[in-house]
Design goal:
Chain A is an alpha/beta fold. Chain A contains twelve helices and twelve strands.
Amino acid sequence: MVTIKDVAREAGVSVATVSRVLNNNGYVGVDTRKKVMEAMAVLEYSPNEVARSLYKRESKLIGLLLPDITNPFFPQLARGVEDELSKSGYRLLLGNSDENMDKELEYIQTFVQNHVVGLLTATNHVEDTLYDSLKLPIVMLDRAYGHYPSVYSDGREGGGLAAKTLIDKGAKRITLVKGPAHIRPAQDRFKGAMDVLSEADVDFAVLATTSYSFEEAKGFAEELFIKYPNTDGVIASNDIVGIAVIHQALKLGKVIPDDVQIIGYDDIPQCSLSYPTLSTIRQPAYEMGRQAARLLLSIIKGESECERTMQMPVEFIERNTTRKE
Amino acid sequence: MVTIKDVAREAGVSVATVSRVLNNNGYVGVDTRKKVMEAMAVLEYSPNEVARSLYKRESKLIGLLLPDITNPFFPQLARGVEDELSKSGYRLLLGNSDENMDKELEYIQTFVQNHVVGLLTATNHVEDTLYDSLKLPIVMLDRAYGHYPSVYSDGREGGGLAAKTLIDKGAKRITLVKGPAHIRPAQDRFKGAMDVLSEADVDFAVLATTSYSFEEAKGFAEELFIKYPNTDGVIASNDIVGIAVIHQALKLGKVIPDDVQIIGYDDIPQCSLSYPTLSTIRQPAYEMGRQAARLLLSIIKGESECERTMQMPVEFIERNTTRKE
């Protein structure tokens, strides 16, 4: 039977160091960590501690379910989660559900079988009967849902802010791009924009879309200017669609923002690389990830005094697809 | 002691169905899977099968290590891997190392402790002593390395193709953006471009950069036109940098491609949304992910006749940042 002492001897380090590597607490240098991992592998060490922690559900694993990692908003969230968790020695297992409920369930099962001690989810499909039955600390990320603790930004306010901004900047024939029906935050921002547009003295039209993907955004942008060639203000369902609308407007010879103003949603890094750069409603993705991780850890540690729901602020980021002044 | 039979009774399904859910083989409908998972959770079923599979290393988990999920190239790879694995009932654990060796080691440790049956890695830091010691089937993705099976595209050829394309299209004062030194594929494509430029009858300059991130790309693009204001052809280190170069060129009032041609690398989805759309060297990311997953599964299953290294083709994708004819 190989013991932790054997591993320490093989690696030429102290037992305490091996223990720190195993439990992922305290500082361990990169070279030392590597030596310990190699020693464990060489000796085929099957650690009792690991087994015990697995069965006592004392792993330091957290599961994070994302709906679509190809949307740049979500990798930003994930980095925030990861940075915060790693400060406390927790590790992240990432699952990408691809907006597919079957995959979502499979990942949850994988997480549970691997004894995660908490779950962060930003997906759209699973109802609370399943989440309730898991008896795991759960934090909803990027959306509020049921009675769960959650970290999200106010989509309703953000949608309203987008509409109000375009109206204030003189748009008179606004096109509102409605995001996919099954994505909850998309519906919140749609409703927020509708509230403002309905009250205002402007013409507006709604273009319904079914996806946020880069591949399909181009088609929506083409459709938009075919259906509403004279629109002078576009509220995009997110930045990806906003960037596609810039592309299509320029292709049609329109001058931005003189002929048409465009406003995105999210503030993904690409916004400042488009030309012209995309004005948008910013959600603080990285910070949302960090706060969700902190909230989950505080629940795991039983610190009940913590805030159970955090609504993060949205703000208008002025770039060059909206008029100045 | 709760058994699989109790779970089946609670869920109102057959034992075989519970077993299919547990082992993730055969078809299980979404509603059925949910019922079984809820029953397991309600009964606090601690499955012997799972425990056994964990210790016999017969989990159906595969680890995938990515260097940077905020670079859109890698989510495309990951989706290819995921789609292929899920066909065979395998599940993916994703780790994002953020180009940080410590994180990379931590993820490997997490994967090993969770008994992955194979590892796919697209990272840049770990040397083979560690990988060798793991005694796990490993496939390198997006790079060839040592004696490991690998799936990658030919960076040297791709870099050469980028340079040759710009020269053929009449560029005379080429700027070659050299990607980060620690990223192996970046160095391959740099060398490939250098081989061609050195032989050709053109002026050229090299701009060294330290990162592929969206945040820093803008600064590199500014630096490029300050140092080489008269360049008429830019070979970008990847598409992100290419899109930043488009932005900066337009900002400086240059006409693309008449004043300056730009060529990217990777063919991320954003290339067709920039304006003008970015000509680039395409790596078949999704297909690379699929092939790497297939190769890994064939190694896990002991099918030794399989191809051990796959070099995928690169190709020039003509869009609007290079001259036609």
